[in-house]
């Protein structure tokens, strides 16, 4: 067991006695001459029986001389004078432990915790006590539970920090059996319940807090936040509003209400609550930005730009507001202004891919294809593997007939996401234009496998093949479509027509009859059925 050689200077002790006898004893103590020091401290105490320092060091002398019962007696006397002295309490607790006096050790630790918030120190002591979990629980949950509350709270905190939530919860529930209105315990219990996702118990604990302290707006606020995180928005709104009824100037509840209504698309309500919050946080960039966005959603462009500009005036490097102003001009088809603000946003935040994408699209809408391509390539210089940027770059190349460059971008996209049907469709279309029909069909099949409803591109190519009189290829592609979408009436009908072109009337009849089952009023169906039946005869 480690021994303390001198007192903690932060404990606000009285100055050491200047008495020669004490000074001699203290020197002997430091020199580890405990027998001589012990006699001199005893002589000093004959005339100064209430000297805390002498009692403490006499206890240390006994302790270092393995006279533990005498040491305990001296430390207890010292604590009668200064009951909150940390060093003396710790010495006493460890002595009790060395004598296997577990009840006394726990009682002293509990006393220590009643005036100390040092959970780390308590944890160290409990580790040194080396007590089994069962023996602790048995001791602290006896009839003395109420008296042992500080110790139980510490045990609960220690188990919470060790992520042993069930044990922590058990300790806290024991306290609540004798003190059901202990607010600090209920708050800690909520923290313990959250990682376990015990939603009914969490709500119940919050409701108990509200019953105990009905005028505490924070309880309603925290319950509101809990409901919001669990997407129980109606309950969240109710609790945030109750919080505001108690404290109408509580900004956080106004912010959260604004956020909920904004998410629900009720932008007027969002503005109502955020407008209160901005009075108390006039320099909140995020709030100004959110208000600007909400006003834009209501169609009030002037107000939207006003709030976004306010954010920029406070912080000229606040990228989100430049971005949002760019979006406003973009949607108004003012691409010149849109490009200006997107570029300013990029200057402030060169890592946001959305801004680069929007700027490229704005350049494209202006007709400046080269700048659109350069914008996306500039982003890729620093972020090689960004799917959306590669996809947009591939799309621009494709629209402007740079097929090889486009194909390279889309193939890189496949490396990052091998389930994206739109990428497969685009690759298939490029291969189709390059007259590489077999390769094109492979990618159309991958697209349909990822999303059986994605038939538009493949169906369009099948019609083009028929116009080019490439009937066999058209049939092959339509069969791939029907493999993944057997109820595609248009594909079945076109396949039947192709079979008729090839004079394969029996098969044509088979597909037309399938169409009849799915849609008996399909245009030209009866006419074609009559034709194949007559040909068959």
TrEMBL record:
Q: Does the record's keyword annotation contain Repeat? A: yes
List where this protein forms a coiled coil: none
Which keywords belong to this entry?
A: Repeat, TPR repeat
Region called Disordered, residue ranges: 1-22
The TPR repeats are found at 52-85, 217-250, 251-284, 285-318, 319-352, 387-420, 421-454
Indicate whether tRNA-binding appears among the record's keywords: no
The cross-references to SMART domains, in alphabetical order and at most eight, read: SEL1, TPR
Against InterPro entries, the record matches this protein to: CellSynth/LPSAsmb/PSIAsmb, Sel1-like, TPR-like_helical_dom_sf, TPR_2, TPR_rpt
Protein name, entry field? Lipopolysaccharide assembly protein b
Instruction: Name the source organism.
Output: Anaeramoeba ignava (Anaerobic marine amoeba)
